[in-house]
Amino acid sequence: MIDYTVDQLVTDIKTTASVPAAQPRFTTDGIIKIMTRVLQSKIIPMMMTTREEYFVDYEDYTIVQGNTTGYAIPTNAVGMKVRSVGLLNQSGALNLTNLPRLSLEQISGYYYGQYVPFGFYVQNNNIILWPPNQTTPSDTLRMYYLRRVNVLTSSVYCGQVESIAGNILTLSDVPLSWVVGDTINAIDAEPGFNTVAREREITLISGNDVTLDDVTDIAVTNWIALDGYSPIAQVPVEVHQLLVQAASLEILKSLGDTEGYQKLAVEYKMLVSYVMDVITPRVDGSVKKAIPAGNGIASWCGFGWRS
Predict the structure, then answer these.
(1) Tally of structural domains, the chain
(2) N or C: which end of the chain has fewer CB within 10 A?
(3) pTM, two decimal places
């Protein structure tokens, strides 16, 4: 199995930036912190501009009739914003109806007899349905959003699953800092490095055996890390070297190596162009887009398009 961990990328960074061996500022953990900062401030925003649905996830909420305080946007949503909000009707076939976003001006107009379509508005970090009583209890509120990638960490603070028996995971190693009650997540060791399980509680540790409250979706070779962390940069493999160069630029700037910085900056700019060509579009060839059969909320209300 190919080793995609950040530890391998750290080795590349030390070579690319010619990091002095005796430089105390750039330990492995220090470089990984730089990688996380670069990943979240440069790489992820760059990938978001492609609008190719990278990092899209969703959260479902049980609708409470008359709820005027709203439903919290997930805390790990990039920019604390949602991609879309919809009603999920699971009474029969899966049916998702996107809701329109309403302005505060439209909401205030509701009390003066003006027509206001059923939808939602944003207040601080909450999504509030409006009017609050016009929802079907059997429906579920679904928020799609761009999930923030996990903070990077060295594989020495993680363990890789070697076998599973019941709720017991046998790992390649168990960090000494882990204790019963900690929550962990599981990361797929293969591209695209998805988080396959989140917020699983450790109930027992015995040697390299870790018992969890739930092992659903966890598989052999998955990496286990404390919740919110990952030993692998959760971006396409083709982006990993871009991350290496971006972190190397930060180090060269910190070292005051102007000449090295300028040379690598030219290469970095070229690599950005190559990577963008690789990751977008996500479907190559001449792709036909499906034409919707209805008109979103109009269809949900029983109105369709006129022919």
Answers:
(1) 1
(2) C
(3) 0.84
